[in-house]
Design brief:
Oligomer: single chain
Strand content: 15-25%
Largest sheet: 6 strands, antiparallel
CATH class of the largest domain: Alpha Beta
């Protein structure tokens, strides 16, 4: 008797500035997923928030055809509940590849919880907390994980003039300015003086009403992939050698100017320490399934400094998360299998909780 295929619904696109990155990630996950284990249902969400069942991509997968580098948002519009919930006899797992707001921030995860469906990755709380860099920093600080100095500015709450003075006095220049709830370096600027800082804050406010201003750290950019639930595994670290002033959107996805070194050339004790910090951050932030934890390494200075935690890291050919696991001994198709198994483990545990008074 053959084992029934798992119905794997891959969500991509989304209402986010990272829409295009998601389409590339989805194409490569679909190409790598083991077709003897999964019946893949690609579902694209356009930038208006409308859901489309991509039948053309599903047919190409079934026929063994090669997929394009970036998956289109095409096909008939569908009701989310109907496309996510397959026949009762099918085991469905949802794989959200929705980078940024409206996908990585707990919104889609909350919907999937209401639908009682297993899904890959972090739950509602950890997704929303890790998406908000300000909240991530607060929790990491309580957990004793070292970080660079920062100031949070909330539009409409904090004094817009005072923040410029506070940054100059407490952090100095230059600084980096980021929207609290965004990824892929969207909305990030480097400011070297008061005028540039004011412009950078206004630029970041295009994407969010909470802005993080961080001291500029002169250090190496090192990342660790984390995989697991309550007892997570960590990968060998990877290093990003940037091609511009900082690791920006163009370096990550357009120019290919950034050099990725996996494993990062580091002493063994430094590798052990960063892997421990990555696991500590994953657990403190209540992550599940996967995350990529990014650090700065100040050689001869403070050592490791947590930068941020990404709960839906990129899965493109140039993305660090799958590359670090490949270097650690887990191939791309096996990584997908592990993530699906972890999703089912979390779902079984949550489904076992009592709903009785």
């Amino acid at each position: 008797m053959s084992i029934p295929l798992i119905r794997l619904v891959v969500l991509y696109g989304g209402v986010s500035a990272e829409h295009d990155v998601s389409r590339v990630s989805a194409a490569h996950v679909l190409a790598a997923a083991d077709r003897t284990k999964y019946r893949i249902i690609p579902v694209g969400i356009d930038q208006r928030g409308v859901w489309h069942r991509n039948d053309a991509a599903a047919e190409a997968i079934a026929a063994g055809a090669e997929l394009p580098n970036s998956l289109e948002i095409e096909g008939p519009t569908v009701n989310p509940f109907e496309v996510l919930n397959g026949p009762p006899e099918d085991l469905t797992v949802v794989f959200p590849l929705l980078h940024g707001p409206h996908g990585e921030d707990g919104t889609v995860q909350g919907m999937l919880e209401l639908f009682k469906l297993p899904y890959v990755g972090c739950g509602v709380l950890s997704s929303s907390v890790c998406m908000d860099k300000a909240m991530t920093k607060e929790i990491a600080a309580r957990a004793g994980i070292p970080q660079c100095r920062w100031i949070t500015f909330r539009d409409g709450v904090d004094d817009a003039r005072q923040i410029l003075t506070d940054v100059e006095e407490q952090l100095g220049m230059p600084v980096f300015v980021k929207p609290a709830n965004m990824g892929s370096s969207v909305g990030v600027s480097r400011a070297q003086n008061r005028e540039e800082l004011d412009a950078a804050i206004n630029h970041a406010l295009r994407y969010d009403d909470v802005v993080i201003i961080e001291e500029a750290v002169v250090g190496r950019e090192i990342e660790v992939a984390v995989l697991g639930n309550t007892a997570p595994d960590t990968s060998l670290p990877g290093e990003v050698k940037i091609g511009s002033d900082f690791y920006d959107y163009a370096d990550k996805y357009l120019t290919g100017a950034a050099e990725l070194m996996i494993p990062a050339p580091l002493p063994e004790d430094a590798i052990a320490q960063i892997r421990e910090y990555a696991a500590d951050a994953f657990i403190a932030l209540r992550c599940a399934g996967m995350a990529r934890v990014d650090f700065f390494y100040e050689v001869g200075g403070r050592g490791w400094l947590l930068n941020e935690v990404n709960t839906i890291p990129g899965f493109t050919p140039s993305s660090m998360y799958p590359k670090m696991w490949e270097a650690t001994g887990i191939a791309y198709p096996d990584l997908i299998d592990r993530l699906v198994a972890l999703a089912l483990e979390v779902h079984r545990r949550r489904s076992s909780f009592s709903t009785e008074h």
